[in-house]
Structures are given as C-alpha cells and as structure tokens.
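Lab notebook page, bench 4
Experiment: in silico fold of construct C2
Operator: M.H.
Input chain length: 295 residues
Purpose: comparison with the prior construct
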Amino acid sequence: MKFDIDSLRTLQTVADTGSLQAAADQLCLSRSAVSWKLKRLQERTGCTLLRKEGRRVRLTDDGRELLAYGRQMLDAHDAAVRRFLPLDTTGIVRVGATEGASSTPLLDTVAPWFRRHGPDIDLRISVDQPATIDEWLADGRIDVAVTLVIEDDIEDDDVVLAREELVWAHSAGIAIGELASIPLITWGPKCLFAPLATRTLSSAGVEHRVCFELPSSASVLTALSNGAGVALVNTGLLAGTNITITGAPQLPALPRVAYVLRQNPATIDEPLQKIVADQIHASFRPQQLTGVATP
C-alpha cells in the first residue's frame, strides 16, 4: 500500500475546512477531483474516513488516525521541497537575531541553504540583544526578527519557533543560602534576562546586585564556572558543564520563554521575505538549541 501526497493533502484540507467545496476552492481543484482523491484513499485503506454531519464533513476515528500520520508525512515532504527548491529571484532580506538563534538554525542551516539555492539573494544577518532587535524591527532596519520573549508576551502575529525553560545557575562552589546578596551575571542591560532576573528577585524580596554585564554566552559560562555569581539561563546552555541548577528556596520560580519570528509589516508581503521567513520556520528545531544561550 502506498499513500500519495496529493490525496493526504486533500484529506487534511477537508478536515481543516469541514467542507468538500471549501477544500476544493483552497486547493484550486474541482469538487469532483476532491471526492475522487478521498475515494481513492478510502479504497486503499479499506476504511471509511469521513462522515457527513449536516452541512459539514467530519473525520471518523480511522480518518483522524490516518490524518495524524498524514500530517507528519506532509510536513516532511514540504520541508524537503523547501530545502531543495531552486530560487530564481534576487533581492535583499535583512534578518535580526539573538545569539542563540543565530549560532545554530540561522548560520548552520538557513544561510547555507540560501548560498546553495539562491546565490543571487543577499541575506544579511545581524546579531544583538532582544531589545535592540525590537528597535531595528520598529524603525525598519530589518525585515525579519528571530528574537526571544517571555511566554506571556507572545503577540498574536508571532510565529512561535521554540519554547525554553529558564533556571537559576551557579558554580557548584557557591552556597546560595549563605549569601546576603545574590551577585548576578547578565548579558547586559538590553538582554531579556537582566531585567527579568532583577524584577523577579525584587518581587520576591531577595537582595541582589548586578556584578557582571558580559557580551556573550561563552563569557557568561566562564564567569559561572569560576564562581563569580548566579545567572538566569536556559538549561541547554549548561550541558556538559560543572554548573549547578540551584534549588535554593529563596530564588523564585521563573516563567518560560519562547523564540518567535516577527516580520516587518511594511515588507511582510514581499515574496522574498516570505521565502526567508518560511526557511527560518522550517529550520528552527528545539533540539538545535542544545548548548546555546538564549539571552
């Protein structure tokens, strides 16, 4: 038995729209073509995949089970098409990203893809702190932003790329309970973590002071390893280090954060920007972030 992509896509579209005609319109097919593709799927599986409920069409249990596999197959197929589709276009797209996003998905995956498939596309990537990236997007200096936000601050138009857990971290030699004031290590005033750490500690009544404002994940890890203080970090950054995730009760619980993709509304309809945004979305995988800081 073999499943063809077009039939699975038809099943998915019917399930999403609830109507054969709506699915036909969305797929630019005739209604009879949609019915034929669904009939072929049912013949191959030997199962009833759809049933009518009034004017709408619903999946049966077998239909939902097939669609669960189908969505995975469609995602893999579409990702492969995006990866190897040659681009006959030119132009400039400016991307702003945080250090965590740039060091793996963008530089390791997205940029090489454009070198192979769109050599005439001028992809420009600038790296800075989230506050600076927000400024760039607001004043039009970049077209696409891959930035970090607190989970509660995700906007309606944001495309969520990955979610991360935050922890308080320090070297094994620091006894948190014996400190009169928590010495904080941060990525500087424009990183997401510095104001979040100070605000969270202040709300909990925990004495603290910012002792280090460092420019990179490597320097933050060095400071942590040498016992310089406590930092708010993501767990992936700590893999393979001797740095401890503190369980000290005086340090408050932390929210989750998310990497999001945001686009400049003035250029969001540009075809080339859509291609870049799509490639970023397809390339951004949570497992790629292991060992990468997310300030």
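Observations: The first helix runs from residue 5 to 17. The chain has three domains: 5-84, 91-164+258-289, 166-255.
Next step: discuss at group meeting.
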